[in-house]
Amino acid sequence: MANEMKKNHRAPVVDVLKKYGIKSEELIRGVKCPHCSYISCKRVYGMWKCRKCGGDLKSAHVDAIKDYALLFGTDVANGSLRCFLGVESGTTVNRILTSLNLPSRGMRRWEIYSLKKLIHWN
After folding, report:
1. What is d(CA 41, CA 22) in angstroms, rounded to the nearest whole number?
2. How far is CA 22 from CA 40, 57, 97, in A?
3. Partners of 32 in the beta sheet?
4. Which domains does the chain have, with CATH numbers?
5. Over its length of 122 residues, how does the chain's per-residue pLDDT go in tens digits?
6. Nearest Cα residue to 32 out of 63, 76, 71
């Protein structure tokens, strides 16, 4: 019975922005450098380049995508994530999402990716 309860347990859904009275427009968007904490790394040739410390980062986007899931929910479209990460290219975001092996539904410009596997509730 304990295994069944654990399997069916769902974390409570909390609208963090609403709870704390934060508007979506007030959020600082972009990818955070794990070395200097500067937000606004730039995607260059498959890597993230910190504009402040110059660090080269391969997977700095993963934490930003987790943040997106916690703030806005676990379903994401390419355009929404592009805006959140500060990336202009839809192809780049598509490569990022594909590399994470996320389940998706829909096709092409209507494709929605599920970020549930990136969020681990304890």
Report:
1. 23
2. 20, 29, 27
3. 39
4. 14-118 (1.10.10)
5. 556 555 555 555 678 889 999 998 999 999 999 999 999 899 999 999 999 999 999 999 999 999 999 999 999 999 999 999 999 999 999 999 999 999 999 988 889 999 999 987 54
6. 63
